[in-house]
Amino acid sequence: MSSAQIEIQLIASVVAIACAIPGTFLVLRKMAMISDAISHSILPGIVIGFFITQDLNSPLLIFLAALTGIITVVLVEYIQKTGLVKEDTAIGLVFPTLFSIGVILIAKNANDVHLDVDAVLLGELAFAPFDRLLIAGADVGPKALWVIGSILIISVILLIAFFKELKVSTFDKGLAASLGFSPAIIHYGLMGVSSITTVGAFDAVGAILVVALMIAPAATAYLLTTNLKHMLIYAICFGVFSAISGYWLAHSLDASIAGSITTMLGLLFLAVYLFAPTKGVIAVMYREKQQRTEVSLLTFLLHLRNHTEERERHVNHLNEHINWQKVRSKTVLDLALKNNMIKFDKNIVSLTEKGNNFTSQAIDYIITNEDSKIEHMKEDFFLFRG
Amino acid sequence: MDKKKIPVSAGRIAVKVDDLTVAYNYKPVLWDIDLEIPEGVLMAIVGPNGAGKSTLIKSILGILKPIAGSVSIYNQPYEKQRSLVAYVPQKGSVDWDFPTTALDVVMMGTYGSLGWIKRPGQKEKKAALEALEKVGMLPFKGRQISQLSGGQQQRIFLARALVQNASIYFMDEPFQGVDATTEIAIINILKELRKAGKTVIVVHHDLQTVPEYFDWVTFLNVKKIATGPVKDIFNDDNLTKTYGINYKVSIQE
Ligand SMILES: Nc1ncnc2c1ncn2[C@@H]1O[C@H](COP(=O)(O)OP(=O)(O)OP(=O)(O)O)[C@@H](O)[C@H]1O
Ligand SMILES: [Mg+2]
What we know:
The structure holds two protein chains of two kinds. Chain A is mainly alpha-helical. Chain A has 18 helices and four strands. Chain A has two domains: 274 residues, ABC transporter involved in vitamin B12 uptake, BtuC (Orthogonal Bundle); 104 residues, Winged helix-like DNA-binding domain superfamily/Winged helix DNA-binding domain (Arc Repressor Mutant, subunit A). Chain A has a two-stranded antiparallel sheet with strand order 1-2. In chain A, strands 3-4 form a two-stranded antiparallel sheet. In chain A, strand 3 and strand 4 form a beta hairpin. The relative contact order of chain A is 0.10. The relative contact order of chain B is 0.18. Chain B is globular, with a radius of gyration of 18 Å. Chain B is 33% helix and 25% strand. Chain B is an alpha/beta fold. At the A-B interface, helix 7, helix 8, helix 11 and helix 17 of A face helix 3 of B. The complex binds adenosine-5'-triphosphate and magnesium ion. Adenosine-5'-triphosphate binds next to helix 1 of chain B.
């Protein structure tokens, strides 16, 4: 690996971490669209900042652009508050307007400088290592790494300091307000960090990848955990994994790095969406099938218990009486046998002692609906789980 | 906590609302409310849907900004008395799919006394576990909250209020969607709080149980209709004024 390659992966990974932190809270606050809006509407801020500073990485430019991001949020909320349109419509009104102002500004005044719409939207990671930061004449590494690294350090400090406030105001605004943690301050703080991160990262990776890195890893992590801290950690890991694997995908296909990273993010989400252990599509389908079988089993056991007459418990009768398809009856019968719940005696089915006990417990639960009764049954009986 | 701020003498006014008017988009939903809640009562707020009950509580707690009027808690503005007040919001006002467990939600009740930045530690965790035990939810402490039944979720929020160790409790429909056993369990906890000298204010919809559960009542429908001891003012006249129909007749139907 050449040092440029290492630096590209390093920049991509740092961007991924910096994006995953605010991204997690945006996803939880159902504000994914806002990050899209911010990433586009900061364009006029960048252009104006560029006119003033003539330097794409100047802190003033980042600040001005982040301010445009916050203005976007305020405008969206203001339009929404009129009650005339919904939030998504308000977003759809604000960001194209601001974005096109930026485009016009560039076309009118910045035609001859290094600032074009493609660069803003797509970025070019491959060039990032060539823009070096020189301190007193010494090369200290790529500029992008310093910019985004500083932003990352600030957001990590803010995250650690205000984790509890972010959590409570995201979960329950009313409680946060009544405890004295102003939800508005936290909201605009988060918007500020999201804007600054977007501005800091766009030059290296482009606005589209910034949005993807904010939303996709957090959305993927959301499917895997019920713990906010784990969600943050997973989101960071997914972001970094996609950044590095995306880089190598681009390398082997000779394709765009940003495009490949986005592809990896999409694939990762798809894989988790399908295979996540509890919320994944396949797990849900499996669980439903399992539950159906177990409900059938319970129905069957109840039938046996309710009928003492041998006639009612004859194998042939069971087939037509309970009215299940052959396959289903067989699965249920096998399951009951395997668990020693029933026994056969000349084609007459009856409950074993274990089956009898189990059925009583189940009835108990169904009638009283008392949670303490099923807590231990949950271990060995799928039906009652969650 | 700030025990010194809590007056011990009986007959004090815990919550005082003066000329309160609250509007959403300049349309008033609470109109010139005056209300005094004495310390140590277990009070029901009753009124039809949309009467402004939740709005009243939210504006007392500073969650909503009123367009006119003021609120004081033990003669001081709410901002200074935050630690004396706990709040159980109406169900559905939180994100149930949020990645958090029952214990975690209860812990949030301790955040107020911690203030900004400081993080909860063992002491807070212990208090949260005790509150969970009190509402009978200890076995569920690790459950993600959407995997709890409606009544269990309600108990978690009660525990979160208990852990705040406040003097005044506001609860917005804590009996919504809970079964008879849970309802009794909750009311017993509320009565215990009153016995300990706390003031408990509950938005309540089941008019039948008002005389049995509460000793104080406020009738509300955009304007305040009446407030006082249940035995004095819980009558057909006030019910009719509040609900706009002849209440007795409608019960019989
Ligand atoms: N965020 C809001 N924006 C606009 N109007 C609102 C908002 N919240 C409540 N309202 C309106 O204010 C009025 C009072 O609402 P509030 O929630 O206080 O009623 P409530 O007495 O708690 O009713 P319920 O018994 O149904 O809980 C209603 O007419 C409602 O439509
Ligand atoms: Mg309400």
